[in-house]
Write a structure and sequence with these properties.
Helix content is 33%, strand content 24%. The chain has 352 residues and is α+β, with helices and mostly antiparallel strands. The protein has 2 domains: 4-266, Jelly Rolls (Sandwich), CATH 2.60.120.10; 279-351, no CATH class. Residues 132-283 form the JmjC domain.
């Protein structure tokens, strides 16, 4: 199918579009100009020195590609800290020196054979809604997009939802769908990227359960014989531009020039039900509960919680913890918006 260029909007035009078509992001992605200029991060996060000072000690992994989404794909990966990774970005020729003894997959020779740079994609900046770092990207979303993230219990603890990507030219994020059916954006602070997106309605043409996702730059006819039936939506992302898409849109991103990019995950009325039905946050919440079992048992002395701790399935434990938290919250006075979100989540979980 012929590709479609993702439409580009100035900020005021995008705000009018969302006001008149609140579900537009389910229909197609959008590029928005003029939004990130409001951010302090558009100035402070474009300096590698500033980023090293702020986040250099944070543990990260860096992979080539960022991760794999096809059964037969190869990758390299190192476990390091963000400061060391940024030294690599400044001087990739120091690869062996910087990552000696830190390879968790492959090694420097395998990396060269892949002809890809390492790419750090799991820097964890936010663990609760009051983190000061969020002030660097305020406002978080363009008007009049609503975000309900702060009303969802354990939202920032049970998943990484604020991302800072620093990437070398050639860095690859293969085709994938984000966990938890979130709405998401890429906000380009520096450099250039190229993105290809596919609608969730086209998933049978670009994904197979036994293989994973296709490579949009080199589709395999034998593996994905109907790939031409999927419509690619394409955009070049430039500094100051924001690419935003709806829940379950698959995306493939290549860094064209050394880049700094912010990504943020959004839950609102468009995808709250889909988020609640997702399995990924349940597993993460279950793992948190197991890690802090005594605390959770003390706070939630319910028979179902005790039984869930005996279950080996983390997703089941996460679901039971969320049910308990929602019921307790709804039994107390709440602001209207918070009550609406929690009531819908409870209804979805109880009916699942």
């Amino acid at each position: 199918m012929q590709s479609s260029a993702i439409p580009v909007y100035e900020l005021d035009a995008f705000e009018r579009l969302v006001a008149t078509s609140p579900n537009v992001l389910a229909e197609h992605p959008c590029v928005v100009r003029g939004f990130t200029a409001q951010w302090a991060a558009s100035r402070s996060w474009t300096s590698l020195e500033n980023l090293t000072g702020a986040f250099g000690s944070f543990p990260v992994t860096a992979g080539a590609p960022q991760f794999t989404t096809h059964k037969h794909a190869k990758m390299c990966q190192v476990k390091t800290d963000f400061g060391t990774y940024l030294r690599y970005v400044r001087d990739p020729d120091r690869l062996e020196e910087l990552f000696e003894g830190k390879w968790s997959k492959g090694d420097a020779s395998v990396l060269r054979a892949l002809d890809l740079p390492l790419y750090c994609g799991n820097l964890r900046l936010v663990r609760h809604s009051r983190e000061k770092v969020l002030s660097q990207i305020d406002p978080l979303v363009p008007d009049p997009i609503e975000y309900l993230n702060d009303e969802i219990p354990y939202y920032y603890q049970s998943g990484n939802h604020v991302w800072l990507y620093v990437s070398l030219a050639g860095a690859l994020t293969p085709l994938h769908q984000d966990n938890n059916a979130v709405i998401a954006y890429l906000a380009q602070l520096q450099g250039h990227k190229e993105a290809i997106l596919y609608s969730p309605a086209d998933k049978p043409h670009y994904w197979r359960r036994d293989l994973g996702y296709m490579d949009p730059l080199s589709p395999n006819d034998a593996e994905f014989p109907s790939w031409r039936e999927a419509r690619p939506w394409t955009a070049s992302l430039n500094p100051g531009e924001l690419l935003i898409w709806g829940p379950n849109w698959a995306h493939h991103v290549v860094t064209l020039s050394n880049s700094i990019t912010v990504s943020f995950d959004i839950v609102n009325a468009l995808n709250l039900g889909a988020y609640t039905r997702s399995h990924d946050w349940r597993v993460e919440l279950g793992l948190i509960a197991r890690k802090n079992a005594d605390l959770f048992r003390a706070r939630m002395p319910h028979p179902r919680i005790r039984a869930a701790f005996d279950d080996t399935e983390d997703g089941h434990l996460g679901r039971e913890v969320m049910l308990c938290v929602l019921r307790d919250a709804l039994a107390a006075p709440l602001a209207e918006r918070s009550r609406r979100v929690k009531a819908e989540m409870l209804q979805v979980l109880e009916s699942a």
